[in-house]
Amino acid sequence: MTGSEASPSFRLAYVPGVTPTKWVRIWNERLPDIPLTLVQVPAADAFDVLRSGEADAGFVRLPVDRTDLAAIPLYTETTVVVIPKDHLVAAVDEISAEDLADEIVLHPLDDTLDWERPPGLPAFERPATTADAIELVAAGVGLLVVPQSLARLHHRKDLTYRPVSDTPESRVALSWPQDATTDMVEDFIGIVRGRTVNSSRGRRPAAAPEQSPKTKRAEAGGARRKPAAGASAGKAGGRSAGAGRRRGSGGPQGGKSGRSGKPRRRS
């Protein structure tokens, strides 16, 4: 390998809240010679990372600009409200967006939900990040509505969360540049879609070497010239049986001449 050549590797970006562990494990089992590098990026920067080539593919949140990026939607997350454990909402299993009408609901600048209008009352200012908003919830400043994976990511012992209906939902997708659909990207797509290692759309094994026409004719001629074992035995048996029948066909005459009996009297 020359100095200009680089070892093959696959770079996978993912946004906060996504857990790629399962897919990474399958990749390492199937392609142990190609290391997979994880690149965690903020949700707002994920598409720029893919376009710049800093990652080969990535787990992102929809929507995706399909002009230059391809995407495969994977799953939809439950939307929850993060609250202090002693909040009144903690007493119910689920609430609606209308139930938050009198509550201060924080809306961080990195919010991943596509709001037409966020529920509740707006805070004095928007927190810079979801992590900052979590700290404000713990301080009793307000509540926070996020995808469930982010509530789990920023878990605190003094906070809990409950599902919220009538709110936007976050959808996670696998995305990559359309003009950079490499063999490794196809391999990872197959893993994410649950294809087996022997799938026709997976990594194909090397094809057997093509035989020359002369070799094919020689093998075919040899197969025709070589009789089957059963056929040879049958022909040999047929000849023996035929010979026996021919010998037996003269039996009556031979038997008559050789028939024993009393001798005739001579006159």
TrEMBL record:
Keyword match Transcription regulation: yes
Residue numbers spanned by region Disordered: 196-267
Coiled coil: none
Ranges of biased composition (kind: Gly residues): 249-258
LysR substrate-binding domain residues: 11-194
Pfam families found in the cross-reference section: LysR_substrate
Family, per entry: Belongs to the LysR transcriptional regulatory family.
Name recorded for this polypeptide: LysR family substrate-binding domain-containing protein
Source organism: Streptomyces bugieae
